[in-house]
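ok here's Sulfurtransferase complex subunit TusD, seq below lol
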Amino acid sequence: MSTLLLITSAPNSIHAWHALGLAQALKSKNQHFRVFFYQDGVQVANSLQWIPDDQRNLTTEWQKLAIKLPVCVSAALARGITDEENAKRHQIHTANLAQGFELVGLGELADAVQSTDRLIQF
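and the structure came out like this:
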């Protein structure tokens, strides 16, 4: 059974952490799953977030999974998150997309929804 985790909660939400926990559990059990960051969930891909030393870094935890981390490009740009290519295209002075994350269109979400057995939104 394949699972799509649709993460729409901001990184400071407990729901975002639950999404990570489920992803870690699915990976440890070699279950097929995909993730997609959308709406406020895209904020996890902002490399300019400051995290206090005494707190876990959600971005780093997702990167440790070493999986594909697609982020909705429109939602990201609307929240000030961009990669090099879009920074040039939209004349934004710097890129801040965290390493391992990839800006993609909603077509990727549509494809993921079509090819999954269950969708869980956080």
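fwiw The CA atoms of residues 70 and 102 lie 5 Å apart. kinda neat tbh
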